[in-house]
Amino acid sequence: MGLLFSLFLFVLFSCQLSKVDNFEGPNATISGGIYDNQTGELVEQDIINGMQIEYVEHGYDNPETQYMVVKNNGTYRNDLMFANTYTMHPVRGNFVPTDIQEVVVKGNTELNFKVQPYIRIKNPKIVQSGSKIIATFNLEATVENKIAKIGLFEDPDINVGSTLNKINNIKELPTSADLSQAYSLEIDIASYPDLLIPGKEYYFRIGALIDAPEAKYNYASAILIKIIN
Q1: How far apart are CA 11 and CA 124, in angstroms?
Q2: Class assignment of domain 28-115?
Q3: Span of 29-38, 143-152, 170-179 with lowest mean pLDDT
Q4: 11 to each of 6, 17, 19, 23, how far by Cα in Å?
Q5: I need a surface site. Which of 1, 153, 162, 202 has the fewest CB within 10 A?
């Protein structure tokens, strides 16, 4: 009897393992970008604590809300999706909140989001001039909220920004931005002899932050500069 019972348990356990092994894994991908609805340019982000894409898979009584991280260049990709219908929504970003979208994910699906960034950084320029790194730019606010801060960020990593930097120069703005006004921020190379070494290359990036709940910095693209004596 003991042998028969053990054999029964073995067969039952084997059947359960077979069911687990036959469970289908992810079979679809989704990718795209966050685009400025006026300029058509990608809206760049912070890679750490930046905006996310919130998504919910249909077909479940109590579906779990999941999140995708957006790269610093404003693109995203998820290769571990299941073919199904989803609702998706970019959240906690550097743009005016958008509507929820419904999308059918099957095979290789592309979904782009068109948004209104809080701030557009115009005419960005970063150069080394003597012993200083100098950034000049204009700002265009697309909402009535005040621009709270502007910043120049440095890091050896291309993902440099407000949440990833070795050096930063952040300035609070007392008044609303004026597109006709030229802004300037500097980093003194001599003040950072261990972080800005002549002959080596570093990334610099201009950012501006709107005064709004959960807002993130808006950015121009990072610029690679080789420090010269």
Answers
A1: 69
A2: mainly beta
A3: 170-179
A4: 9, 10, 13, 19
A5: 1
Question: What is the rounded CA–CA span in Å between residue 103 and residue 54?
Answer: 13
Query: Six-digit token pair at 2?
Result: 């003991």
pLDDT at 14 over 60: no
Lowest-confidence range among 69-73, 134-138, 211-215?
211-215
What whole-number distance in Å separates Cα of residue 50 and Cα of residue 101? 20
CA distances from 39 to 36, 47, 124, 191 (A): 6, 22, 15, 38
Q: What fold, for 119-226?
A: Immunoglobulin-like (2.60.40)
Q: Which amino acid makes up residue 127?
A: V
| Integer Cα distance of 171 and 223 in angstroms | 20
SS3 147: strand
Distances (CA, A) of 148 to 93, 118, 142, 202, 209: 16, 12, 14, 26, 6
- For residue 219, give every residue at least 6 positions away whose Cβ sits within 8 Å of its Cβ, in sequence order, or none: 44, 45, 72, 94, 121, 161, 205, 206, 207
Q: What is the pTM of this model?
A: 0.85
Domain ranges of the chain: 28-115, 119-226
Dihedral sign, CA of 72, 119, 145, 174?
positive
Q: Do domains 28-115 and 119-226 have the same CATH topology?
A: yes
